[in-house]
Design a protein that fits this description.
This protein is mainly beta and about 170 residues long. Helix content is about 10%, strand content about 35%.
Length: about 170
């Protein structure tokens, strides 16, 4: 399964609309995960013309985005035997702590294999304590600078997960 991942689009603050390079990067994906700071639901509508979309609520998301059925504080997905969380920001200190720490995981819930998150506006792909942490950066506001940015492609199958960060032109 191929999943397009992005975060922190900040439309229309960073740029007026999604860069066309996102649709090119996400051609052929089965699902799109947006890790928050969406700002307007039309972003999710546009992405949904490519594939189904789920999104995490960002700390800056308000108004119409909060009422959107695709937006939740945290999505927990089970795909090809992998548990994937989609959240906006990781609890700090950065998860060296156990994923079973109070407030991180609900009773009876499995710890994640993969966590897709945003908030930091920088790309992060690393394994911490057996959990693959993926921040795709931002396609419009990478490192808090308006302009060209990044998205991710997450490939998941029953034996492994692989992430590729893709540069997107605005």
């Amino acid at each position: 399964m191929l999943i397009g991942i992005l975060a922190d689009t900040h439309i229309p603050e960073a740029v007026p609309e999604l860069p066309p390079g996102i649709a090119q990067a996400f051609r052929g994906v089965d699902l799109i995960l947006h890790a928050g700071d969406i700002y307007v639901s039309s972003v999710l509508d546009e992405l949904e013309s490519t594939a189904p979309v789920l999104a995490a609520r960002g700390d800056d998301d308000v108004g119409e985005v909060l009422a959107d059925r695709r937006v939740q504080w945290k999505h927990v997905l089970k795909l090809h035997g992998k548990t994937i969380w989609v959240i906006h920001y990781l609890p700090y200190p950065y998860p060296v702590m156990s994923w079973r720490s109070p407030g991180i995981i609900r009773k009876g819930q499995e710890p994640p294999d993969i966590v897709v998150f945003g908030h930091d506006h920088c790309t992060i792909v690393e394994n911490r304590g057996g959990v693959l942490l993926v921040n795709p950066g931002s396609p419009t506001f990478l490192n808090y600078r308006p302009g060209a940015g990044t998205v991710g492609l997450l490939s998941v199958n029953s034996s492994e997960a692989d992430v590729r960060i893709v540069d997107v032109q605005v």
